[in-house]
Amino acid sequence: MLDDGPRLYLATSALALAIFSCYRNYWNKQSGPPLPPGPRPLPIVGNVLSLDAAQPWLTFNAWKSTYGDIIYTRLLNKPVIVINSEEVAKDLFEERSIIYSDKPQSFVYPHFASDFNPAFLPYGDRWRLHRRIYHRAFRQAEIPTYHAVQLRSAHKMLFSFLQDPSDYSRHFEMFSVSFILPITYDYEPKAKDDPIAHIMERYLDRVNAILTPGVTVILETFPFLLKLPSWFPGATFKRASLECLKAGHDIKEIPFQMVEERMSTGITAPCFVADTLSRMRLSEEDDAVITAAVKETACMTFAGAFETTTSTLLMFILAMVLNPEVQAKAQAEIDRIVGKDRLPGFNDRPSLPYVDAILRETLRWHPVVPFGVPRTTTTSDIYKGYFIPKGLAMTHDEKKYPSPDEFKPERFLHEYGSLTSDTMPLGFGWGRRSCVGRYVADAALWIAITSFLAMFSAHKALDEHGMDIPVVPKFSPGLIIHPEKFPCRIVPRFPDTSVETLTHLTGLDPCVNIA
Predict the structure, then answer these.
(1) Which of 279, 282, 350, 461 is the most exposed place for a label (fewest CB within 10 A)?
(2) Measured between alpha carbons, how far is 79 from 405 in angstroms, rounded to an integer?
(3) What angle do CA 205, 288, 145 make, to 5 degrees?
(4) How many whole angstroms separate alpha carbon 140 and alpha carbon 440?
(5) Residue-wise pLDDT tens digits, 135-194
(6) Distance of alpha carbon 431 from alpha carbon 94, whole angstroms
(7) Nearest CA to 425 among 477, 464, 385, 367?
């Protein structure tokens, strides 16, 4: 049971929230332009009880039909604006980016080793330094330098599918690991249980599981929950915080020190950490600031790319299982352009518009970051007659396309088959806070999808009677979502496919470094 201290804190917190809620309701009615429309909040709890706890973005989408493209809601004591329209997102996040490029700050982030995540950094000098580091390494002109390692990772993935087609989730994870770690740290993962990959994945598992919008609001409302001793019964958040802090220290320090040790011997090959340190230490005065920034940007390069790339590829497999006609059409395009005597390469991309349309539709169909990343305003604003207060958090989930639940790559193609100009910015964000790694991620996703379709097909699994087992999609909770494991049957497209065949096509030795 709780002692009198926490009981008193809960009581005074509830009273303070009630007074704050009443004051805000009075202020909203008396002052200037109105807030955007939205569901009527309850005292203290706001609209929390109306949300789908597992998939709250579905509630936001449902509210669109009643309240429109810009919605005001309140989650406990946190007011939120929900953006459900591409037009509104462009108007605010791009045309007024100087106002809408900040991020809501929370005392919760440092407790879960997330205060160095660029998605959460406030719009200021630290964010600009991180952004400058990322831009130099991952601007569009630099992406061809990563093609070789991405192609090799895709080819290694094909061997994994051939040897164990049932473990498709892990094969996509290893694809992500095997191109991100060499690019970032000049480190080639050796096996499925690679220690560096394990450090990175442990951090992501803990942060993604705990740092959800709902948990953040709870902890901001009742901060004493993070002050309880870890041994205290029910101190779940405190124990999770300690685990995240340990994992956060490890991802920043262990792989970085590995690169620094190699640099001291002069044997380091080009990579994000070595190149950035060498360049910036020559031009910057504060070595401690630069070192900290490189540690943070390096580990977040892995964090940002691993989770989203893997989750998007799992969405792709789900889409192929549910839409066999789409898969067949893409494979016919690959066979026509590439043939069957070689594997696709990046030079083939302009000639494979339908495969590109599949990638865009995968990003649109079930965005793996369905909330987007919340933003906050740096000053109050008026938009279409509505008052947007300073410091108000924002999120958006775009559903502008007809029949949005259907998987239709054709929506990204002109009638005569060429790609439209719609590059689906939702997958990588808007304006000044758009994902700086979008070009390297786009290339990785394309080569993984194209390589898979060239050699394999994904189908529904069969029961003991040879009948299709129905697939009912379910998705994980968290900031970044993915399909929960579902039964599927992945088979080679050609009956003579073997390790020898892949060795001939890829030029890789399957006995060396094929995880």
Answers:
(1) 282
(2) 29
(3) 60
(4) 8
(5) 999 999 999 999 999 999 999 999 999 999 999 999 999 999 999 999 999 999 987 789
(6) 5
(7) 367
Residue of 496, 487, 492 lying closest to 456 (CA atoms): 492
The answer to whether 433 and 372 have CB atoms below 8 angstroms apart is no
Q: Any alpha helices (H) in 323-412, and if so which ranges?
A: 324-337, 353-365
Could you tell me the CA-to-CA distances from 60 to 56, 135, 361 in Å, in that order?
7, 33, 21
Structure-token pair, residue 205: 């598992």
Q: How many CA atoms lie less than 13 Å away from 77 in the CB half-sphere? A: 18
CB of 436 within 8 A of CB of 135? yes
Q: pTM for this one?
A: 0.82
Report pLDDT digits (tens) over 322-332: 999 999 999 99
What was the pLDDT predicted at 56? 72
The domain spans of the chain are 85-506
Q: Is the dihedral of CA 126, 131, 134, 136 positive or negative?
A: negative
Q: Average pLDDT for residues 312-328, to the nearest whole number?
A: 97
Instruction: Report how far residue 6's alpha carbon sits from residue 3's, in angstroms, rounded to the nearest whole number.
Output: 6
State the DSSP H helix or E strand holding residue 192, giving kind and residue range, or none if neither: none
User: What is d(CA 223, CA 236) in angstroms, rounded to the nearest whole number?
Assistant: 13
**Rounded Cα–Cα distance for residues 505 and 455 (Å):** 11
Please state, in angstroms and rounded to a whole number, the distance separating the CA atoms of residues 306 and 299. Answer: 11
How far is Cα 216 from Cα 129, in angstroms, rounded to an integer? Answer: 26
**Separation between Cα atoms, residue 483 and residue 40, nearest integer Å:** 33
Contact partners, residue 487, CB within 8 Å, separation at least 6: 460, 461, 469, 471
Segment 4-24, tens digit of pLDDT: 433 433 333 333 444 344 444
Copy the structure tokens of residue 479.
């900031």
CATH 1.10.630.10 for domain 85-506, yes or no, is yes
Could you tell me whether strands 78-83 and 393-396 are parallel, antiparallel, or unpaired per DSSP bridges? parallel
**Contact (Cβ atoms closer than 8 angstroms) between residue 282 and residue 324:** no
Query: Residue 80's beta-bridge partner residues?
Result: 73, 393
Q: Rounded CA gap, 4 and 332, in Å? A: 70
**Amino acid identity, position 179:** F
Q: Where are the beta strands (DSSP E) in 344-400?
A: 375-376, 381-383, 386-388, 393-396
Dihedral-angle region of residue 474 (phi above 0 means left; psi in -120 to 50 means alpha; beta otherwise): beta
With contact defined as beta carbons under 8 Å apart, do 47 and 74 qualify?
yes
β-sheet bridge partners, residue 492: 456
Q: Beta partners for 83?
A: 70, 396
Number of Cβ atoms within 10 Å of the Cβ of 295: 20
**CA 466, 469, 470: angle at the middle one, nearest 5?**
145
Q: What is the pLDDT of residues 196-228, one digit of tens each?
A: 999 999 999 888 888 877 788 788 888 999 999
